[in-house]
Amino acid sequence: MAQKQQQNRKTRRTLEATKKKFIERTDCETGEDGVVYASFEAFDKVWTFPHPLFASDEWQASVDAAAETNIGKAQAVLGEQQWEQFQAAGGTASDVMIMFTDVQLTMQDEISGAGPTPPAGPTQS
C-alpha cells in the first residue's frame, strides 16, 4: 500500500502547477489583483477582461446573466468602466464579442496543443 501511495504522489497533479501550465500556454498576464487577463488592442488602447478559463465564478455568472443581449454581455465582459470608455472610443458590443469569441476559440486550440506551438510528434519519411 505504501508503494502505491508513493506512486500516486509522483503522478498526482496539483492545481497550482496545472493552472501555471495553462496560463503559460494561453500567453495571458496575471494582474496585480491576481486575476488572469486576456487583452486586445483597439482604438489606440489596450482593453482587458478576465480570461474565461481562469475567471471567477462571480464574473462568469455576470456574463451568463447578461447573455440575453450582446450589449449586456459586452458590458459584463469588459466591466462597466471599460465598457463606457470603449463605447466612447467608438467600440461596439459586436467588437467586444468578436474579441471574446477569439479568446475562447484560441484557448481551445492552445490547450489542445493545436495552437501556435503544437507538440512534436512523429515525422513521416
Automatic annotation (TrEMBL):
Protein name (record): Uncharacterized protein
